[in-house]
Amino acid sequence: MNLLDFPPSGKSRRHFLKTAGAIATFLASPAALAKSRKLTGSRTISLHNLHTEEKIKVDYWVDGKYEPEALAEIDLVLRDHRANEVCSMDPKLIDILHSIQQRTLGSTGKPVEVVSAYRSPITNNNMRRYKRGVAKNSFHMLGQAVDIRVPGIDHQDLYRAAVGLEEGGIGYYGRAGFVHLDTGKFRTWGGRRKA
Questions:
Q1: Does residue 195 form part of some domain?
Q2: Sequence-distant (≥ 6) Cβ neighbours of residue 162 within 8 angstroms
Q3: Are residues 46 and 22 in the same domain?
């Protein structure tokens, strides 16, 4: 049976052809193609925890879905090393880290260095006693923040790359040698936004 023979006649046939043409045009549109491409492929993250010396390189997102086993591996590397407690890290934070890695390291495979990630409430309270700038209600306690360095990238350049994403909170801690990222509303502190 030829598709042009269905439906058999007149007005309904014209309606069918018009609808089929509209669908074909939509499916071939740049927006539809871009959307379909976003749902295929994988996102790889490479991390190095500076306190535990653990390293991981894993595909955490494949063909539009987060990979639970990979996220669990990431959670372990980003755990509170002081209390040895693991937290389910926010996948949005992992996406931000992935974007930073792509902007600064490209496909070199070099890991992002993790200074601090999940903190238990006890660890966070202890840190507040001896460190300035540790928030009482830190995103770190929710698995929604990470402090990072990128080997070979100046901290100010890393900060600017993060600000360019316009996602979450971005803090520059030049003296301490790291950039803070979190999944809160977009805001910045501690650094210069312009080059």
A1: no
A2: 96, 100, 170, 179, 181
A3: no
